[in-house]
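Sample A.
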Amino acid sequence: MKPTKFHIAILIFILFSCRTKSGSDKISIVQIRTHPDTSVKSIQFSLLDTLIVNTKDTFTYNHRTFRILKHSQSKDVEIQYWENNKWKDNIQVHVYDQFETDFDVNKDGYKDIFSQAQGFNYVNFYIPSKRLFSEQFQLFADDEIVVDSVRKIYANYREAYHACNNYSSQLFDYKNSTPHYYYLLTGETECEMGNIKTIKLYKHDNINDSLILLSSFKSKDTSNLDYEKYWKKNYKRLMGYHQHGVLCKLGFTE
């Protein structure tokens, strides 16, 4: 059956009625690459496209449907989830150089929301107990090593990207799916790129969101912060594992 003038008029009325609150701002779906199990494909639609193809702004993960909305004049995207027959807000995500939903950053078997820029990863971790995504965490991104595979202790690393930046590495693990930092090792250049003058060890005070300086010493290799060697040599002492082993031998712990 050919569309009549009445059908065309109704379609035009619907399309022009579906505008944003401002009447001018468009909402588009950010271009993403997703986990193979989800329904989202690489897409980038205008508001009109979204109205016509209204299922491609969503993805289903762990039996919950999410959608990703992006205001065209901002680098922020909004993650919402469907519950009790309506969309609810989960988290606002600031997008940097790219936007990914297929990285298991914390290696817990669940995919996280990921972006990166200049040696930093920006991650919204999936929290399985809540079936939602966390706030955005900033992590050093130039390297990550496993320090202790049994206890699941890791160390990351970030280069000095500018003259007055430091070379930096953190010792950490994951608690409740999000990173928990213990120590920070820095190679301080005093604004001379590639020339490490001093190495400093800090302890993370996670309660007060601050750093406590523990030691400072001269670097034997002024061109390289050998964080892997340092952590593997010292992490047991720093984490108290040596003391725990001694107490076990004496019968004071289980």
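Sample B.
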Amino acid sequence: MPKNIFIYDPYASGHHAGFIRVMLDGFRRESGWRATLLTCGEASGHPSFRRLAAEYPDVLDMTVAETAIVPPLVAKVAGSFYAGQLENWLTVRREFPVLNASRRFDYAMIPYLEAVGVHNAAYWPAFGSVPWAAIPHGLRCHFRESGIKSPPRRVDALQALCFRRMLRQPGLHRVFAIDPYLARWANDPKVVFVPDPSPLPPQLDRDECRRALALPADAFVLLVYGAIDGRKCLDVLLPAAASIDPARRIVVVVAGTQDARVRDSVLRQEAAATLRAASLLVEFDRFVTNEEEARLFAACDAVWCYNRDTLGSSGVLIRAGQHARPVIVADAGLSGRVVGDERCGVVIGDARREDIAGAIVALRDDPRVREEMGRRAYARFREHVPETFAGAVRAAIAGASTAAAGAMAP
């Protein structure tokens, strides 16, 4: 039976487009399924969203809306983060009824719940009688009860309250939790665990990939991958790498579009200059294609996943695991818990230069440990394939329609 699905995502950076791509691949498997992606002008011009529009014309319509603006006083009181969430939710509430009047949606999807805020979704419904689902990426309200290390926050109790309230909404059909600990903590049939999707990479030859990327064949390569902003913690990595004896030939590869603040500060400081002068810092300051991504992971020996701010799921961690590469992570958050439990990398507490340098050198000097960590990483993340995620979404949409049809039956 044909289905019409509404998707809202105002952001295109990171792996936002990846979740939408997986859903669209799943919709292609069904006859007559089509999605409408509502986004903002800036995101619609991002390379990842332009590729979606070009590659999925048979199942995707992209609609661009001007983001709602809250009054300056509200923005000042709420702060930029919460004001942004409110503006996004106001945009959904304004645009969805207009689009729904002509397209008559069967289902609505929020691929990044944090884009609109769980508090807004809990107390201010947007989709009327249309069943909807969301994917939370950064909820931390369950961390302490789940034994996941994170700084205590007063907002966590409020977030938990809002999350429970959202679950009681009649219109909410599913919460797809990419964090298994959230699903266990919620203990609610609406919340289902689905592995954070990432396609299994092609099997590429390490040496050939290094030649293609002009990386030295005899060096230990540590990869920093993704949107290169403050969350990548280059301010602690590069000084640690620069303190290591250059004779060890440890090359840091920074791959991904660089945030201007990082490019103009951390990457211009002494540590970066020292590494460049020794040919131990390689930068790919651009949007990385899927083909280049596969080569980068195949060419590296380990992946830097240390992140002191984002404590939720990490797409880079999953990609590293699927390439059987060990990682270096902070001991806090979901990544620290998973890597510690699975013993598929090095977990660091405080971001001290000597600890980071010691972790890098330890991985560099022991190929056997790297190989064992890589095997455990692959065993943990090989099931994170898109088909699993897409199948869960398709089943939910079909199930919601079946339930609605049954409710309307005499």
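B remarks: The first strand starts at residue 3 and ends at 8. The CA atoms of residues 200 and 303 lie 17 Å apart.
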